[in-house]
Specification:
The complex is a heterodimer of chains A (about 325) and B (about 300). Chain A is of the alpha/beta class. Chain A has 2 domains: about 45 residues; about 250 residues, 2-enoyl-CoA Hydratase, Chain A, domain 1 (Alpha-Beta Complex), CATH 3.90.226.10. Helices cover about 50% and strands about 15% of the residues of chain A. Chain A contains 14 helices and 8 strands. In chain A, strand 2 and strand 3 form a beta hairpin. In chain B, about 50% of the residues are buried. The chains are: A alpha/beta (about 325), B alpha/beta (about 300). Chains A and B meet through helix 7, helix 8, helix 9, helix 10 and helix 11 of A and strand 4, helix 5, helix 6, helix 7 and helix 8 of B. The complex binds zinc ion (ZN).
């Protein structure tokens, strides 16, 4: 299978291909080729570092959407035992764009909820590319309420371009389903640990996307609107998304600076897909530490503190 | 109430909800009384003075024109009962948003044309004798989008109502979350929903009235978390805008899609209520739901 090359990686990818083809030659008898190979290797390494160590917001958005990036079900499979999946909203359907389940993280029993992008086209079609229908949000809310009843902490994974904007989604109350999740999540009397693993697209992400701790992967984003849509609104031109991405303050660094994210998980050079196992393991440690820090908190105090935190978000002046 | 009674009742109190600092004679929708306008529904030519007296409802066919936030509040509360709160909150362009037109300039222009500090105004009032916190949004102010100030005003409205044992009545219009405040705007959805939830837990009622248009992050947060949801005739309400939905499904939308009437049919709202009846309908709901309504000797 051909590897997926992001737009900004192209110059590097071309060099890497050239390097690979040189390496496949037998160069032991041609010293000048060997020298060229060594030069090229240095050049590739240099470019790799400069390219990936200072990604622009728009480049990070592209990394967050990389098809090989670990998905919610990779984290579930890699980190949790004894998984009992919870399916269906008990009203209409089981929306596979949201995963929900009972799961155990190194001895800690939790409820896991996550946007569930697929690994293949077929999976993505079945999961609507990770864009939930109202049923998905209602399943998520069902899982939240279960967590509350049985005092199980909630761990959520964010990875959606946004809620599904279809005709039937509207008719079945997309806005109502999201709003209801927001209200329920805001008052959930158990610890809620949120992990931004990829895309954090607007209301569809927020519905399961806030709590007592927000951990973001270095190249994940969280935004009120997609950079493309923002560019279309501002300039009628989706190609100006890079400007919008920079203006929207959507990177993990931005969210940390704005007091919305609590910590950032560094990714290997090039993105989480380069070393998925390492990233998944690190996320597991961070989630476990967050759960342990929140364990034993008085449920009422937890909800009050979450409300105080939510109420503190927003910047304005209040002149007398 | 007949239209004539209604006219009589409204006579002379069109601008009782005054905008501080707003020059007299520049209140409403920017249209002076002396101009003629045409009704998009019945195509008749109307004298703006008549339309304004009728709270911007076409006297011939009942078409609901856009109404400014202060007039919306005026139309729903008991006369002279409004006392604005949190009037001095203003946005500070926290992200220094620079893509497209600078946000600071956008705000400046909106303030000038609307005499508002942001897209929502809130205050204490009474409706049918019941103490409420009332709020209204104004589409002329950056599309009635929700940024930090709108989110804060709405959240404070719920908090104040909880503290003072009031109901909450919101007249909602919005293009969605305000993109110029980025993630801060998105988080206002969680903040306002949390505040609405706490009012509900305190046993106090919340009625929302969705007006044209209500979309995006505002619909998907506090707007639809009310105990009773009404919409004005002709209001378009949804999460995704109709053009985006059309692009997604790649066919044309059914007639009436996202209209107030179709929302009733799909079970999403309780009723479509003409502007003229809003005060009485909301008062009746409060008669039932205000915890101390019996003590107050309401109509029940
Ligand atoms: Zn008319």
């Amino acid at each position: 299978m051909a590897r997926f090359v992001m737009e900004f990686e192209r110059p590097l990818a071309e060099l890497e291909d050239k390097l690979a083809s040189l390496k496949s030659l037998d160069i032991t008898s041609t010293p000048e080729l060997a020298a060229e190979l060594a030069d090229l290797e240095r050049e590739v390494e240099r470019l790799r570092v400069t390219l990936y160590s200072a990604l622009s917001p728009w480049e990070k958005v592209q990394v967050s959407r990389h098809p090989d990036r670990p998905k919610t079900d990779d984290y579930v499979a890699g980190l949790f035992d004894q998984v009992v999946e919870l399916r269906g909203d008990r009203v209409f359907a089981d929306d596979q764009s949201i995963f929900a389940g009972l799961a155990t993280l190194d001895g800690r029993r939790v409820v896991v909820i996550g946007h569930n992008k697929g690994h293949s086209t077929k999976e993505n079609v079945a999961r609507n590319f990770g864009s939930p229908h109202p049923e998905g949000f209602r399943k998520a809310e069902r899982a939240m309420k279960l967590a509350a009843r049985f005092s199980l902490p909630v761990v959520t994974f964010l990875d959606t371009a946004g809620a599904s904007p279809g005709l039937e989604d509207e008719e079945r109350g997309q806005a109502w389903a999201i709003a209801s999740c927001l209200e329920t999540l805001s008052a959930l009397p158990v610890p809620v640990v949120v992990v931004g693993i990829g895309e954090g697209g607007s209301g569809g992400a927020l519905a399961i996307g806030f709590g007592d701790r927000l951990i973001m992967l270095e190249n994940s984003y969280y935004s009120v609107i997609s950079p493309e849509m923002c560019a279309i609104i501002l300039h009628k031109d989706a190609a100006r998304a890079p400007e919008s991405a920079a203006a929207l303050s959507l990177t993990a660094d931005d969210l940390l600076r704005l007091g919305i994210a609590d910590e950032i998980v560094p990714e290997p050079l090039g993105g989480a897909h380069r070393e998925p196992d390492m990233v998944i393991a690190e996320v597991g440690l961070r989630v476990a530490a967050a759960l342990d820090a929140l364990a034993g908190e008085d449920p009422h105090a937890l909800v009050e503190r979450r409300y105080e935190w939510l109420r503190s978000i927003g910047v304005f002046s209040e002149a007398g | 109430m007949s239209i004539n009674d209604w006219f009589k009742q409204r006579e002379g109190r069109r601008y009782t909800v005054s905008a501080p600092g707003c020059p007299e004679g520049k209140p409403g929708d920017g249209l002076p009384d002396g101009v003629w306008r045409s009704c998009p529904q019945c195509k008749r030519t109307l004298y703006q003075g008549d339309v304004a007296r009728c709270l911007s409802v076409c006297p011939h066919c009942g078409h609901h024109f856009e109404l400014i936030a202060r007039d919306r509040i005026d139309a729903i509360i008991d006369p002279e009962s409004f006392e604005e709160i949190d009037a001095t909150l203003t946005s500070t362009d926290p992200l220094r948003f620079s893509a497209g037109k600078p946000y600071g300039a956008t705000l400046e222009k909106a303030r000038e044309t609307t005499c508002m500090t942001d897209a929502a105004i809130t205050g204490r009032a009474s409706i049918g004798g019941h103490p409420v916190v009332v709020g209204a949004m104004d589409f002329r102010f950056v599309g009635a989008s929700m940024g930090s100030v709108v989110g804060e005003r709405i959240a404070r409205a719920f908090d104040l109502a909880r503290d003072e044992r009031r109901g909450v009545v919101l007249l909602v219009a919005s293009g969605g979350a305000r993109m110029q405040e980025g993630i801060l705007s998105l988080m206002q959805m969680a903040k306002t929903s949390a505040a609405a939830g706490r009012l509900a837990q305190a046993g106090l009622p919340y009625v929302s009235v969705l007006v044209n248009p209500t979309y995006g992050g505002v619909t998907a947060s506090f707007a639809v978390l009310a105990d009773v949801i009404f919409a004005e005739p002709g209001a378009m309400v949804g999460f995704a805008g109709p053009r985006l939905v059309e692009q997604t499904i790649r066919r044309s939308l059914p007639k009436g899609f996202q209209s107030a009437t179709s929302l009733v049919e799909h079970g999403m709202i309780d009723d479509v209520v003409p502007r003229i009846e809003l005060h009485d309908r909301v008062a009746t709901v409060l008669d039932y739901l205000m915890p101390d309504a019996a003590v107050r000797g309401g109509d029940l």
